[in-house]
Amino acid sequence: MATSNLETPASSSLSSARFNHTPYYCEENVYLLCKKLVEDGVVRSDASDLYVLFISNEKKQIPLWHQKASHRADGVILWDYHVICVQRRKESNVPHLVWDLDSSLPFPSPLATYVAETVRPSFQLFSEYQRVFRILHGPIFLKMFASDRRHMKDSAGNWIHPPPSYDVIVAEDGTAHNLNEYMEMSSVDIVKSIGAETISTVQSEKLGVLVGETQLEEFFSHVPEN
């Protein structure tokens, strides 16, 4: 995860310190966050109420607000990609929660608040900055994700950003690296509509589905209670 310059046209909080966080390794941070939420009994033991969202686009330039790494008052930053976790709450009177260790918003934040304050879908952006979301089911992500951190080395083999001190994440099937598969996304592959088939795909397929920034809340409203 890296940053670049941005151009634009005319629940009660928990301490994020409880969770492992290595700057610029958001995918690994979320992987470990999901595991800790399970271990601490905050979510279901099978992580079935968790969804992992990779955010990027064809240009690898996505603006998000209220990010701790930003040097601007509004917290906006231009990531090449970002990863967050959404906890779907089964109770109709409580909000779904976004767990983003890089956000300056309350931790965790209600999904509607996070979308409005961090994604800001109503904010006028050039088309190359439109965000695409790859939605993955937590249990599948925890089994299938792998990263050997090759994307964090330059052409000479030097670290662009210091790596975590723990071992690399290897998928259950032995795969050593597939981060690039999760990061690759195009707006042309965004689902046309959200329905039962969309939910089924996310809950059964390794790479889930791609949705647009205006479809995010709609997706979670369609996930059945179970």
UniProtKB/TrEMBL annotation:
The keyword Hydrolase applies. Residues 21-220 form the Protein N-terminal glutamine amidohydrolase alpha beta roll domain. GO terms for cellular component: cytosol; nucleus. Its EC number is 3.5.1.122. Keywords: Hydrolase. It comes from the Eukaryota. GO terms for molecular function: protein-N-terminal asparagine amidohydrolase activity; protein-N-terminal glutamine amidohydrolase activity. InterPro entries: N_Gln_amidohydro_ab_roll_sf (IPR037132), NTAQ1 (IPR039733), Prot_N_Gln_amidohydro_ab_roll (IPR023128). It catalyses: N-terminal L-glutaminyl-[protein] + H2O = N-terminal L-glutamyl-[protein] + NH4(+). Gene3D superfamilies: Protein N-terminal glutamine amidohydrolase, alpha beta roll (3.10.620.10). Belongs to the NTAQ1 family. Monomer. Mediates the side-chain deamidation of N-terminal glutamine residues to glutamate, an important step in N-end rule pathway of protein degradation. Conversion of the resulting N-terminal glutamine to glutamate renders the protein susceptible to arginylation, polyubiquitination and degradation as specified by the N-end rule. Does not act on substrates with internal or C-terminal glutamine and does not act on non-glutamine residues in any position. This is Protein N-terminal glutamine amidohydrolase. It comes from Striga hermonthica (Purple witchweed).
